[in-house]
Write a structure and sequence with these properties.
With 294 residues, the chain is an alpha/beta fold. It is 30% helix and 20% strand. The strands form four sheets. Strands 3-2-1-4-5-6-11 form a seven-stranded parallel β-sheet, sandwiched between helices. Helix 2 links the parallel strand 4 and strand 5. Helix 1 crosses helix 5 and helix 6 packs across helix 8. The chain is globular and about 55 Å long. The model has no long low-confidence stretch (mean pLDDT 91).
């Protein structure tokens, strides 16, 4: 796979998928602007605000854009996308390639893509970037196919923009647990494993993700790895998160195939930036602050 080298000279950033959950969260964090030092334009399929443009794949490149140095591709289809089926997940590959093609037309130097921890088979040890694949679900397979398509595109276009793929951990405010809490549940149901514990996961807050994005946009290190896990350390107990949010917890016997632990190794990212350590309480507090600002 290819790498991103050098630093971005043009300081225009195009964010694809601004109307999605992740786009809205980052926009709130950046107070409707963008990363420091970047002139940011947010892409919408319809009804863009003042700092946005209306554009969708299949249309000519937006004529109003100039000096775009980087593209942040937040768009995609997830299992929680309304009505999404496994075949719909293939749209992730289509959107990723559209992002690369648009970046090439605009003269951007790099594209940041969003992948997922779902590309891994969970186990008791930290999951490094070389451990992807195996018996994974349809979403994980679609994201892994997307990653390969990006690598193939870069190999076929050596003079084009570089790609950075972020394998993002459970996102505070966006995963199933936080969605349940956000919907007003006073109690949540979690799996109970034979080890006598509930599930733990690697998480990332919007603050941590924003810091990782800013680093990967500005990083002068040559080369930047093409694929990086994005998470804060250590993994967090989902029970602790639920209780920090004021929810009671009910237990069920973990079904076959349920994972007690998903732990992303973040050594590659840590060589570029030091993300803040998170606790269940700090993760919930930061999410609550973002919700109150919405």
């Amino acid at each position: 796979m290819g790498n991103v080298t050098g630093t971005t000279q043009q300081r225009g950033l195009l964010v694809l998928g601004a109307s999605g959950n992740l786009g809205r969260m980052l926009m709130r964090h950046w107070q409707a602007g963008g990363p420091d030092g970047w002139s940011t334009t947010w892409q919408y399929r319809e009804n863009p605000p003042a700092n946005g443009i209306r554009w969708q794949p299949g249309e000519p490149a937006p004529a109003a854009l100039s000096s775009i140095g980087a593209v942040l591709a937040l768009w995609g289809v997830t299992p929680r996308t309304s009505g999404a089926t496994p075949s719909d997940m293939a749209e992730n590959t289509t959107l990723a390639i559209r992002a690369m093609e648009l970046a090439a037309i605009l003269g951007a130097e790099r594209v940041l893509h969003c992948s997922s921890a779902a590309v891994y088979v969970p186990g008791p040890e930290p999951l490094g970037e070389d451990a992807a694949g195996g018996d994974i679900n349809a979403y994980g397979r679609a994201k892994l196919d997307m990653e390969q398509a990006i690598a193939d595109w870069c190999a076929a276009h050596p003079g084009g923009p570089g790609a950075v793929i972020m394998r993002i951990a459970n996102m505070s405010g966006a995963d199933a647990l936080f969605t349940t809490i956000q919907n007003g549940a006073r109690r949540v149901t979690l799996d109970w494993f034979a080890s006598g514990e509930g599930p733990s996961r690697s998480y990332i807050s919007v603050r941590g993700l924003a810091q990782a994005i800013e680093t990967l946009l500005d990083c002068p290190i040559d080369p930047v790895p093409m694929i990086l896990n994005v998470a804060t350390q250590p993994p967090l107990s989902m029970e602790a998160i639920a209780r920090a949010a004021g929810c009671g917890v009910d237990w069920r016997t973990a079904p076959e195939g349920a994972a007690p632990l998903v732990w992303l190794d973040t050594g590659r990212l840590e060589r570029l930036t030091e993300l803040p350590e998170e606790s269940a309480a700090s993760l919930v507090d930061e999410w609550c602050d973002g919700e109150s600002a919405a």
